[in-house]
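Researcher: Predict the fold of MFS transporter.
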Amino acid sequence: MDTADYPEPLPKGWHKTFYTLWIGCFITGMGYSMTMPFISLFINELGTFNRFELNIYSGLAFAMTFISQAIVSTYWGSLADQKGRKLMCLRASGVMACTIFVTGLSTSVWMIIGMRFLQGAFSGYINNATALMAGETPHHKAGWVMSAMMTAGVTGNLIGPLIGGALSSSFGYRIPFFITGGLMFLVFIATWVNTKEHFKPINKTDMKPMKELMHNIPNLKIIIAMFITTMIVQASVMSIDPIVSLYVKEMMHDKGNIAFVAGVVAATPGLGNLLSASKVGHIMDEIGPEKVLMAGLIIATLLFIPMTFTTSPWMLAFWRFLLGLTNSGLMPAAQTILTLDVPDEAFGRIFSYNQSFQAAGSVFGALLGSMISGISTYSMVFAFTGITLFINIWIYVACRNKKATVNN
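Model: Structure tokens for MFS transporter follow.
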């Protein structure tokens, strides 16, 4: 990182805060992907379920975190504007350390679902860490920082399934939960000790109502379009996650090291994302996030066509790798657009709304994938996901055209 590129001085302690939060996001992403791709196999060991029941329970286990997250994230966003984002990072990492560890002790599917719900109610480390860094970084470098923070999570998502698959195969499905819980406790300590936020608290009585702030935001339709984009892109990522190990199991005809291959399939989007994120971030700063977002949406939609007809787990991994290359620009572009059009006093609340839409996308994607695979086939999940991305393109184009009309 070359600080000479910054015409504005960085706040004192910026680098230490950035690296600490980057590592925290990395561990959060790694912990998630160490456990989630294999949770359907974990559930399968806790009872006797038919195909439909197993798919639905897996979908619920995934979705429950995001249901509670969507419900409470606006409250946490308001609190973040009053108390700062560092406190929100501490809240998320501390509670996640406890709930993930306890999930590993589960004796029934409903205990898993309950712990996932509780985890979601207090989660949000990556989003708050991203919002914290957005507030600490000059706008002209926001694209690079958003991509760098996103890279932390996707790098963790890349490594997590491989580690989780190896641990699950050797020691069972509970061990990754215990390890993740311990790592999140270390994230809590590191965030508490190493991060510094230059935050000016806003008294609750001085906070403008969100309705007034939204009314004063220029190009509000674009902000809403970014919320919808976040939701649909997240749904496209999550639609296959709850059942990826079951799909791989079917394609492998229940033979071979299913957990490892499922881990590879789950990890390949993260690999693609990791390889392209930094480059995409710099391109975003040069040509603008709007062009990057549009190109990414079109390519991602097209990639779901071959994935619909794939019958080999290795070909599926290949197409998901290409999807990861493409997706590296989608979330950072949407978040960068938010940072450019939102006043500082509304950062926490706007990012919390965005988190709510992201959580809603996770719920929608997980339940959509589980239901479609339960009543039809796993491949149809990709067809429906491609359709939702095509709808997203139409929404974005409509809102962008309105923005251009207003500016002219």
